[in-house]
Amino acid sequence: MEIMIRIEKLTKSFGKFKALDNISLHLEKGQAVSLLGPNGSGKTTLIKSILGLVVPGKGSITINGRLVSKDESYRAGIGYMPQIGRYPDNMTIEQVIRMVRDIRKDPADCDEELYFRFGLNKVRHKKMRTLSGGTRQKVSASLAFLFSPDIYILDEPTAGLDPVANEILKDKIAAECARGKLVLITSHVLSDLDGLTSHIIYLQDGRLMFHESVEQLQARTGERKLNKIIASILEKQNLITC
Ligand SMILES: Nc1ncnc2c1ncn2[C@@H]1O[C@H](COP(=O)(O)OP(=O)(O)OP(=O)(O)O)[C@@H](O)[C@H]1O
């Protein structure tokens, strides 16, 4: 299988505190990888390291063969949906989408499926500051998928979405994985990840506790649902719940 993200012996400290401790991981084309772990376990720090927003102390990250520390152009191949999207308050939804689209040289082949399926076209004249949390989340998701990148990093993407929007987003993620994209997703709501995830990464105290396929985990625990699988492993290993 083709490795898209290669993380080798990654360590990140904030002062004396190790937020990431010697993490090594390979993530492949077509995988939907759920990044799990309790609050403060290092999930966001790992995501930010991949995005080049946090500079690791030791180790390396390679994205599609390019070292993250060397060159920023790899970022164009990642669609990132942050936990909380921050946008210019006085711009309308339409202006924000257009502004991001215009940054790219060839805006013709934009993927606007989510924009339309979420019905954002119907509220496109609303200013960002007036939007509900869920609608803001829909704008963030639409932007992350706009350029059909090879890799998606989605930080708590379903938080605040209503059930219909949730299903639309899950359908889209599954369709992109089927097209060979790599999706890395964090969520504390494990039921949102059921049926979507192919692999689980579990962090605790900045350390990698396990990285396995859902099939392997199902076979190991005899459980089908993610919350049962995780509960079973945590109980056996005496880990903390996410
Ligand atoms: N800029 C920073 N300065 C100091 N400590 C930090 C900084 N960023 C993160 N940390 C610490 O690193 C640890 C990991 O934080 P991180 O945000 O990666 O956790 P998380 O797994 O994403 O948590 P959550 O589930 O709450 O979002 C935490 O103890 C946090 O306080």
From TrEMBL:
Residues in ABC transporter domain copies: 5-230
Keyword annotations of the record: ATP-binding, Nucleotide-binding, Transport
Matches recorded under Pfam families: ABC_tran (PF00005)
GO molecular function: ATP binding; ATP hydrolysis activity
Superkingdom classification of source: Bacteria
Keyword Transport (UniProt): yes
Signal peptide as annotated in the record: none
Protein name: ABC transporter domain-containing protein
Organism per entry: Chitinophaga cymbidii
